[in-house]
Amino acid sequence: MTIIYLIRHGETPTTGKVLPGRAPGLHLSERGRMQAANVAKHLARVDAAYSSPLERARETALPTCERFGQKLVLDDGLLEADFGTWTGKSLEELAKLPEWQVVQRRPGEFRFPGGESFVEMQHRVVGCVRAIAARHPGEAVACFTHADPIKAALAHFTGRGWSAFQQIPAEPCSVSELEL
């Protein structure tokens, strides 16, 4: 059995305000750096570490890699969803759009304008997690990623489906454990 820790990146200056997506250059806030250090202290074992290539995920992974002496492997399968033209928009602004109700109530039916669908994102993340687990049988692997990929993976692996997607928690620096 392989243990996969799905770890959301720490807080950034825009957490809860903006949909940053894959925009480069977004770093952890001071609080996010403290959250990342706290995660590293509480993990009992990490035999390998993978991360989304985005700065905020890599920065969250650093204390864990240092503590367990692991080299960080970047994997595009752990990237945030491609939010297309919604990238960089304020959540307050997006919440006023009629499409926001589809995102909240029926995410499995939604494609971000100019980006990927939730279904495509889930397929990418689930495939990535399965491939990582296959490379590390019997090990504990930390995967540093983003809220929506974590929620999509958990909806799949727990069998809860799209109806539960928006109810699955993925707070900054939360750790969700899967046994595969």
From TrEMBL:
It comes from the Bacteria. SUPFAM superfamilies: Phosphoglycerate mutase-like (SSF53254). This is Histidine phosphatase family protein. It comes from Corynebacterium stercoris.
